DNA sequence: TCTTAACCGAGACGGTACGTCGCGTCTTCTG
DNA sequence: CAGAAGACGCGACGTACCGTCTCGGTTAAGA
């Protein structure tokens, strides 16, 4: 255990404390009640230390998002013979977030952050496993002839997340059945 | 039997001035820079007159939205033999908003408002003509056998708007081609 | 030529309710928390009815003062052979007000009202019985040779009230002994 | 051991600007039109900086009073063989304030402030030189046998200021002659 | 008897100021 | 010498009252 005298030794600890406090407050209060002063106080950190490293509230959220501090879940998509079932597994993971207490509020907060800050917007879809897992699974389905060749693979993830986002903005709940119906419609080859 | 109250009555002129100023500032500044004080000043109105009738910024936006003060466009969907073409007409109208100056910012602002306020969320889809026009056209297509019977008509509007919203949050542009591709995929009967 | 007017005449009930509510709120809240709106509500009266008949808060207090609604006491000065004792009776009455709960606050409120409004200032001394009783008793003392001829009778009342006012503004209490000492000094013929 | 706190220290420039602006507005507008916002604007300071250090309008006035920012005069009492003349010198200084333009309004404002705020009340008499000069002179007179031993030295200052205050509240003017008469009555040994 | 004008209650209106919160910057002291 | 602590100028918040101005309803003179 080395104890250094000078240099930004404390920085890592401060960074950790700040992001942790950010995630905690974001869950507790939502995005629009998230304040830099509140984070600084809760993290035991000077405000300047935050401003030195992050340009805005949104950037804090973006970092939390990128490091998986907001959704403590894995969004892996399995790869069986049944693509519809596979995607529904992913859907269940996403809906688990919304069905948790404050789940809808959490997603709405995230959308608010994304609307305000480009960096959050960039990671929104990605953080829910769209690029890394969902799109790959769909692409594999196309390659395997499971889905038609003209399937817009890129868009499908956007379609699913987008639909859920819009339903959440409209304060709808019980997304499970409509979303399953939609997935089946999108992924079932019709004669 | 009417419930009657004596005393002065709500000023129509003030209501008009407030909503007009709200719409103007919303376009000019975006949602997060929209302030009650700014609206009051621009409308030549006391702050209290706003607070007396609207509980929040969001409610003002919701009213503007409901009265078509934010999008001075009609979102009617034509009804020809070609449903894909018909829906693409609607798409062009929506994209016209996004391609206008500040168009993307406008939509993002609207999303921010919807995330914060339920009333705005309620009207978001509706105000873009989804319920009134788009869903009806799709339903007619199903009824006419133009589309398969299992088409999730209700969801299609959400899918299209949701996808556009998500793309906008991700700061994508050039929605035209991907969206056309998606529409064709959704509405073209596959063998 | 008579100036004629039709319509109902000033409502005595409203006037009564307003002054009563004013006196009640003045005792309860003090002058600076006294509001026209509060009086109107408590009196069950429209604000306009107050503004129609009184130009200011101060005028309301002045009327209350003039009608003895603030101090429900009589400030009569007895007339025995001992002028010092007589004046001390008056002093006790005045001090009774200050020793009542909120008594000091009450006098300070009255001073605040007097500072703001000329009509209150006019009646301040008078309402405490100075002109009507105290000065008369002192003048009688001079006439009877009880006091020296050069006694400034007019000022003596001002001196006593003024001293009490100043002590109250300075948040002093226990005025009794110092005031008695002062009275004795002023009214005892010295060799 | 001193109690030390890290962080920035109170800005002397801000304090100075605030008190200066307070005194200026107090003279210009009087106490009841004195507003925190007005002071902040005139001092080029944030409102919070005022609220951080002073609990109320009254506290600002009290500080101005204590630092001699309201009366730019000296209230020294000379010490000659003629105590009446000496006190009249002091009286002239006080009356000079009242005879200046807005002088009566100034004193009334001060009284209003004193009625509202204890700190102002504490300094009211003191600031007019009563404790520091007048009472000392009177006490010296008693010690020298110039005045009777039973003279209530403490009260005499209150009597003079109190009388002037009361006359001012009653919107009287021309205090000079009555006050001189009173002083002579109080300080002239009678046979 | 029937206007009709002033009264009344209620309270909406354009304003001003309140006292608080949070912003992003800047300064000081301490470990 | 980096960082916690926090003061600063600023701007907006939502509230309380101000004094004025409608409203609809009621009441008493005078036509």
TrEMBL record, chains A, B, C, D:
The keyword Secreted does not apply. The keyword Ligase does not apply. InterPro entries: Homeodomain-like_sf, HTH-type_TetR-like_transc_reg, HTH_TetR, Tet_transcr_reg_TetR-rel_C_sf, TetR_C. Residues 12-72 form the HTH tetR-type domain. Pfam families: TetR_C_11 (PF16859), TetR_N (PF00440). The lineage of its organism: Bacteria, Bacillati, Actinomycetota, Actinomycetes, Micrococcales. Keywords: DNA-binding, Transcription, Transcription regulation. GO terms for molecular function: DNA-binding transcription factor activity; transcription cis-regulatory region binding. Residues 35-54 bind DNA. This is AcrR family transcriptional regulator.
């Amino acid at each position: 255990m080395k104890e250094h005298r000078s240099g930004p030794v404390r920085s890592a600890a401060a960074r950790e404390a700040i992001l942790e406090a950010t995630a905690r407050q974001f869950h507790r209060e939502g995005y629009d009640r998230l304040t830099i002063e509140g984070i600084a106080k809760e993290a035991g950190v000077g405000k300047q230390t935050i401003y030195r490293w992050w340009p805005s509230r949104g950037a804090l959220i973006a970092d939390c998002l990128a490091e998986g501090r907001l959704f403590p879940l894995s969004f892996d998509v399995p790869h069986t013979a049944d693509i519809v079932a596979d995607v529904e597994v992913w859907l269940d993971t996403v809906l688990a977030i919304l069905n948790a207490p404050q789940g809808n509020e959490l997603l709405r907060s995230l959308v608010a952050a994304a609307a305000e800050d480009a960096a959050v917007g960039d990671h929104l879809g990605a953080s829910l496993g769209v690029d890394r897992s969902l799109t790959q699974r769909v692409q594999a389905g196309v390659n395997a002839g499971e889905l038609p060749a003209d399937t817009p693979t890129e868009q499908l993830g956007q379609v699913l997340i987008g639909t859920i986002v819009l339903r959440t903005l409209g304060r709808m709940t019980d997304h499970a059945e409509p979303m399953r119906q939609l997935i089946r419609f999108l992924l079932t080859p019709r004669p």
